Amino acid sequence: MAERTWIQQTVERVVSQVLESHMTFLKEDLVRRVMQELQAVLDAAPAAPANVPQPTSIHQAPVETASVAVAEATAPAPAAPMAHAAAAAAAIPGPQMSPEEEEVHKKAQRFAKLLVDEIKLYNQAKVTEGRKKKDLYDRLKDDIEKSRAIYKKRYAGTAAESADYFRDAVVRILADNDSSLLGANFPR
User: Fold this and answer.
1) CB 3.0-4.6 Å disulfide test: which of 14, 99, 166, 169 passes with 151?
2) pLDDT by residue (tens digit) across 66-106?
3) From the CB of residue 93, how many other CB atoms can be counted at a distance below 10 Å?
4) Which among 163, 155, 161, 116 has a CA at the least distance from the CA of 19?
């Protein structure tokens, strides 16, 4: 079971990397689809040897791009499911955007990052304490909602409106990619 969790975390990371230039709102659906395709591979894969240390968090797992993971397809058994995940993720076509739409998405991502970086910069003590207590959103609700309103005002009616880059930046930057640190009141 722990191996499956680690593999799912790795699949989520690889899919995130593949989709970084695409619409981030497709991530959950893509992870679900890749995990369904991997079910047979996971069931047939031998258990990892006891002497192979397993990462305890997604941040300890090695960061790999999809092309590196595909190249590792010939590696020993523990790497094989990761390679299949990357190949499956790369094979699923993403939506095609015009260069103008891609630029709007990139600008929206940068603006969301800027807003959330500013929250983090001016509230370092609250961020640290909120991560420890797993209630970041409650501690920073006013700042987060004010910045969210600014973001929405700027990107309402644009190609980037359907993607929630602001939410993604909050999870990635404030919560260090762990949405549970934001607490139960964080809008999902």
Assistant:
1) 166
2) 433 434 433 444 444 555 555 555 555 556 788 998 999 99
3) 7
4) 163
